[in-house]
């Protein structure tokens, strides 16, 4: 019976931590569903292509060649090493060791080779990432919204990757020693281990028993670390490794310049323009929403909330933002981070079965000054490597300010009055629209 | 050569039972702003030269609603849109060309959902076609060898993915096109979009148009080419701020082509 203790321990660890993760994922889905409906079920073929190109193919990531290439190494490394993870999990449950090796033969050798090369590339990339963040201090990583937890979060992810890759290679190195030097039959000959073989000198003077201990310890810490890291995602910007995919699938496909027409307003305007309409009859049957635009996260749609959970805080949006470049408070990344912070706050209250507090995204998180600094130039939308749309949130919040609070800056009120009265943003007479024709010398 | 064609309005043509091939939508800047009216005139001259059948709406044109929409006033936008759509559909307009990327974007992307379906072209796209079809020709134009940098309007470029048409027209001038360090999809805004044109900027270190003008000046241009009346104003102000107005001209693509043609 005691022979099965490792299997049981593994099963308990696995189900506890995967279970916790599933619970948290459910909470995120519940929170996203607090958003208003938005129909993104159209054009499935185009959506698959969009996701394949941008998320799977990293097409927007590589627009910055250096960070793009480094990211591709970490991303591909993550994906291929997940194949190894499958074997580790099966071994954990069955108490086997490298269960795929006898079946796959030469292919297994190739796989191990690939995993090790990518583990090394991940380590190198992470070193560069850390250097760029902490020594080179690239500007976008040091903006005001990156103080405190967001800075920690970014570094923790890098440290976690170093630890996990380190454990992976240590585990392999010990295994390789046991396969080749000790020729232990439990440790099946599994290939060439191109990277970890260079760690063998570390085991100089150790006996087989200690090296088995090293191998087992690294194995357990590695899988345990991965399961802990999985649960870290819920609290972290690193959630993008999952959400980048649905986020690009459900992204807006129409031209970036198109700002959606609000249906509720269309109904109202049609009523106003139709001389035969009976306003009372229409109002009774037509359920208009309680608010125009967005004051809080629950006024946003679910895609916008998913955007917020998907954001990796890379700051490419903020770096391209003309307002931010010229020293204004607006940072599109902060818009996304604030949205996530607020939906998290609302979600935490729901977890406890309480009513969310009276805070709102507007004013408690995002100031009016930020919203009015936007030029709607779409640079942030264009820059985002996973098709997040900060502009849509800014516009929805402006809509709230103008249509619910009449709180536009005064100059904009003047402009709008002109449009209303003269059909132009300036106080010119509509009848003079042909004046240029009289001036034309032809 | 003196061109003698009068430019008709839609209602004048309708009174004669006629319908033009294309409506030239001027936009508010193109109708009223002194600088932008020059662009309107230049483009109209090119249309006449190319013998395009076109008309304007004149007093029946009204703001597309773009600045109201981007300021957050969806009500006012849709009021404007539906009023305009009623006029456009009344004249059975099929094709619209405009020299304003904001009008272009709104007419093309936001009017269909409200019942206004037209083929909408930016004037640089229209001019490119006229040049390709041989209806307009540039021969040894006066801009040969000049250094020109093109400022991408956000609402033509990123908003509608059109980077090529204005450059195709510029290439016909046999001038030297020099790109700014941020151009095309990465082009920096002039600072006017999203209704910023009509208000002061929020507190910061710098005006956006100054930043963009500095990028343009880095290319040491003779001419900064624009494709939007608002960008034109912002860049002109930027050039004045840098006290370069004697040396560097800010010109619309239509103006460049018209002057190269020496109409």
Report the principal-axis shape of chain B. Answer: globular
Task: Give the uncertain stretches of chain A in residue-range form.
Answer: none
| Helix-and-strand structural type of chain B | alpha/beta
Taking Cα atoms only, what radius of gyration of chain B do you get, to the nearest Å? 18 Å
Helix content of chain A: 55-70%
Question: How do the strands line up in the largest sheet of chain B?
Answer: 2-1-3-4
CATH class identity of the largest domain in chain B = Alpha Beta
What kind of sheet is the major sheet of chain A? Answer: none
Q: CATH architecture of the largest domain in chain B, please?
A: 3-Layer(aba) Sandwich
Oligomer state of the chains in this structure: heterodimer
Strand content of chain A: under 5%
Largest interface: A-B, 71 and 79 residues
SS summary, helix count of chain B: 11
Helix fraction bin of chain B: 40-55%
How do the strands and helices of this protein lay out in sequence?
The complex is a heterodimer of chains A (442) and B (263).
Chain A: H1 5-32, H2 44-56, H3 65-94, H4 100-104, H5 106-134, H6 149-180, H7 208-232, H8 240-249, H9 263-273, H10 279-285, H11 302-310, H12 316-320, H13 322-325, H14 332-351, H15 361-365, H16 368-372, H17 379-383, H18 390-404, H19 410-422, H20 435-439
Helix pairs in contact in A: 1-3, 1-7, 1-14, 2-8, 3-5, 5-6, 6-7, 8-11, 11-14, 14-18
Chain B: H1 10-15, E1 22-25, H2 27-32, H3 34-49, E2 54-55, H4 66-71, H5 74-90, E3 95-98, H6 101-110, E4 119-122, H7 123-132, E5 147-150, H8 164-171, E6 176-177, H9 208-217, E7 223-226, H10 229-241, E8 249-252, H11 253-261
Parallel strand pairs in B: 1-2, 1-3, 3-4, 5-6, 5-7, 7-8
């Amino acid at each position: 019976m005691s022979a099965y203790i490792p299997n049981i321990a593994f099963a308990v660890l696995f189900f506890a931590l995967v279970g916790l993760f599933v619970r948290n994922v459910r909470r995120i889905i519940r929170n996203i569903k607090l958003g208003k409906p938005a129909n993104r079920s159209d054009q499935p073929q185009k959506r698959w292509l969009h996701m394949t190109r941008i998320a799977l193919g990293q097409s927007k990531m590589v627009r910055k060649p250096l960070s793009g290439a480094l990211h591709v190494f970490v991303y591909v490394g993550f994906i291929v090493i997940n194949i190894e993870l499958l074997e580790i999990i099966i071994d954990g449950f069955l108490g086997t060791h490298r269960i795929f090796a006898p079946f796959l033969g030469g292919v297994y050798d190739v796989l191990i080779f690939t995993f090790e090369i990518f583990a090394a590339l991940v380590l190198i990339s992470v070193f560069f990432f850390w250097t760029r963040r902490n020594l080179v201090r690239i500007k976008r990583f040091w903006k005001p919204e990156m103080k405190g937890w967001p800075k920690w979060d970014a570094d923790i992810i890098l440290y976690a990757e170093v630890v996990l890759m380190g454990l992976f290679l240590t585990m392999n190195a010990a295994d390789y020693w046991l396969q080749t030097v000790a020729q232990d039959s439990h440790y099946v000959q599994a290939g060439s281990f191109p990277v970890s073989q260079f760690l063998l000198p570390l085991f100089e003077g150790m006996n087989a028993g200690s090296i088995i201990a090293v191998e087992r310890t690294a194995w357990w810490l590695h899988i345990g670390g991965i399961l802990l890291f999985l649960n870290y995602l819920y609290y972290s910007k690193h959630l993008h490794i999952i959400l980048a995919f649905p986020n690009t699938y459900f992204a807006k496909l129409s031209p970036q310049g198109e700002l959606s027409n609000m249906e509720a307003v269309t109904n109202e305007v049609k009523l106003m323009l139709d001389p035969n309409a009976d306003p009372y009859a229409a109002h009774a049957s037509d359920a208009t929403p309680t608010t125009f635009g967005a004051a809080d996260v629950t006024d946003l749609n679910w895609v916008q909330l998913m955007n917020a959970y998907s954001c990796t805080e890379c700051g490419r949006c903020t770096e391209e933002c003309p307002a931010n470049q010229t020293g204004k408070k607006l940072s599109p990344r902060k818009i996304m981070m604030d949205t996530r912070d607020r939906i998290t706050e609302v979600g935490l209250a729901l977890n406890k079965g309480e009513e969310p507090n009276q805070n709102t995204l507007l004013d408690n998180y995002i100031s009016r000054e930020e919203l009015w600094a936007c030029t709607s130039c779409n640079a942030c939308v264009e820059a985002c490597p996973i098709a997040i749309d900060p502009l849509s949130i800014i516009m929805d919040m402006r809509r709230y300010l103008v249509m619910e609070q009449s709180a536009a800056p005064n100059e904009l009120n003047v402009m709008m009055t002109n449009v209303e009265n003269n059909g132009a943003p300036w106080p010119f007479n509509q009848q003079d629209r042909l004046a240029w024709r009289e001036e034309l010398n032809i | 050569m003196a061109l003698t064609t009068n430019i008709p309005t839609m209602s004048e043509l309708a009174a004669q039972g006629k319908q033009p091939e294309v409506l030239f939508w001027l936009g508010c800047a193109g109708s009223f702003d002194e600088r932008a009216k020059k662009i309107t005139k230049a483009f109209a001259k090119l249309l006449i030269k190319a013998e395009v059948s076109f008309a304007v709406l004149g007093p029946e044109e009204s703001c597309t609603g773009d600045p109201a929409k981007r300021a957050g006033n969806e009500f006012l936008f849709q009021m404007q849109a539906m009023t305009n759509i009623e006029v456009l559909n009344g004249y059975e307009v099929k094709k619209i060309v405009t020299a304003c990327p904001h009008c272009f974007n709104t007419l093309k992307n936001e009017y269909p959902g409200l019942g206004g379906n037209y083929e909408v072209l930016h004037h640089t796209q229209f001019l490119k076609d006229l040049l390709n079809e041989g209806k307009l020709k540039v021969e040894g134009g006066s801009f040969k060898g000049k250094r020109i940098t093109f400022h991408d309007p956000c609402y033509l470029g990123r908003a509608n993915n059109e980077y090529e048409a204005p450059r195709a027209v510029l290439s016909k001038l046999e001038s030297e096109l020099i790109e700014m360090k941020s151009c095309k999809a990465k082009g920096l805004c002039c600072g006017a979009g999203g209704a910023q044109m009509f208000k002061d900027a929020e507190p910061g270190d710098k005006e956006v148009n100054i930043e963009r003008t500095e990028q343009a000046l880095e290319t040491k241009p003779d001419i900064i080419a624009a494709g939007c009346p608002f960008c034109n104003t912002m860049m002109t102000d930027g050039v004045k701020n840098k006290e370069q107005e004697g040396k560097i001209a800010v010109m619309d693509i239509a103006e460049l082509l018209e002057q190269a043609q020496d109409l």
